């Protein structure tokens, strides 16, 4: 969809010009990588999860990213506090339900945030999204056991019910707000071999949401941008470690025009 590619390219320029603050409550595994990815995209990251400071911090931010990767009960309380404040202030919230379906704490916490508080975008892999929708699927941990297409219609219905946008990532990503369904064909098979690429993709969606007002466009644009950076990185990487470094470099160097030409966003 040319208009979504155009919107993505414009958002990248806004990001680089404005450097919006993105408040992340994310996991120990990916904190550093995520912060570097956000900086490379033009945003300004902060990682803050203390219950006593999240309301103040989110008040300074242009988007809130909640990630359940290494959660505990007190982290969940902090996420709920931050999310309630963000809702009050009209700040977009993006949720990454890492490992939903693997344990009850993860599935229940994701459901509380998605259903009781409400978020702009949920980004997960196919197994995580299926577990959120049905409660009946299990995952191997944080990696997907299902195809994106297996979760597509379930995600569309869930997005409609929750009034949110859902992005399922995989070889070809699917993004739906319950009415519209788009696919993003950017990316590279090396991406799931590096831990944190899903979490970083979620954070990039948060950055795009910070400079736009259409969550579906933010999710599709963020994923196209991140996936295209992955394609460029694969051309120079020797393996997963150098790929992770090259991904940050490619994102940093990605231009509005390259994104406009390289984004592969299609309807349906
Ligand atoms: N086989 C693949 N080919 C191309 N891109 C992929 C592939 N698998 C995942 N990606 C991309 O990698 C990023 C992380 O997605 P994914 O691996 O599904 O997340 P998670 O790490 O949460 O399971 C996304 O940008 C997605 O588009
Ligand atoms: C391995 C792991 N364990 C808990 S969080 C985490 C990182 C998951 O990151 P991603 O879903 O982006 O691969
Ligand atoms: Mg993940």
TrEMBL record:
Amino-acid positions noted as binding ATP in the UniProt annotation, renumbered to this chain: 123, 169
EC number: 2.7.1.50
Pathway assigned to this chain's UniProt record: Cofactor biosynthesis; thiamine diphosphate biosynthesis; 4-methyl-5-(2-phosphoethyl)-thiazole from 5-(2-hydroxyethyl)-4-methylthiazole: step 1/1
Spans traversing the lipid bilayer: 21-40, 60-80
Pfam families referenced in this protein's UniProt entry, alphabetically: HK
Names of required cofactors: Mg(2+)
Catalytic activity: 5-(2-hydroxyethyl)-4-methylthiazole + ATP = 4-methyl-5-(2-phosphooxyethyl)-thiazole + ADP + H(+)
Protein name per UniProt: Hydroxyethylthiazole kinase
Organism listed in the record: Desulforhopalus singaporensis
Chain's gene name: thiM
């Amino acid at each position: 969809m040319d208009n979504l590619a155009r919107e993505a390219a414009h958002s990248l320029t806004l990001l680089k010009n404005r450097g919006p603050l993105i408040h992340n409550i994310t996991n120990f595994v990916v904190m550093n990588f995520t912060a570097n990815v956000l900086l490379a995209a033009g945003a300004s990251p902060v990682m803050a999860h203390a219950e006593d400071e999240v309301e103040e911090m989110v008040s300074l931010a242009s988007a809130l990213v909640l990630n359940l990767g290494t959660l505990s009960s007190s982290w969940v309380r902090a996420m709920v506090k931050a999310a309630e404040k963000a809702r009050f202030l009209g700040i977009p919230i993006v949720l990454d339900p890492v490992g939903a379906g693997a344990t009850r704490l993860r599935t229940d916490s994701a459901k509380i945030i998605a259903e009781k508080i409400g978020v702009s975008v949920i980004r997960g892999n196919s197994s995580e999204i299926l577990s959120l929708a049905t409660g009946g699927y299990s995952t191997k941990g944080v990696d997907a056991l299902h195809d994106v297409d297996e979760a597509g219609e379930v995600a569309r219905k869930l997005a409609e019910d929750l009034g949110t946008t859902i992005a399922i990532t995989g070889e070809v990503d699917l993004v739906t707000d319950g009415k519209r369904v788009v696919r993003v064909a950017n990316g590279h098979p090396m991406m799931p071999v590096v831990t944190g690429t899903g979490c970083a993709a979620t954070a990039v969606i948060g950055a795009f949401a910070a400079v736009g007002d259409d969550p579906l466009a933010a999710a599709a644009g963020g994923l196209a941008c991140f996936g295209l950076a992955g394609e460029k990185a694969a051309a120079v990487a020797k393996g997963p470690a150098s790929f992770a470094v090259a991904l940050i470099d490619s994102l940093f160097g990605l231009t509005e025009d390259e994104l406009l030409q390289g984004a592969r966003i299609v309807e349906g």
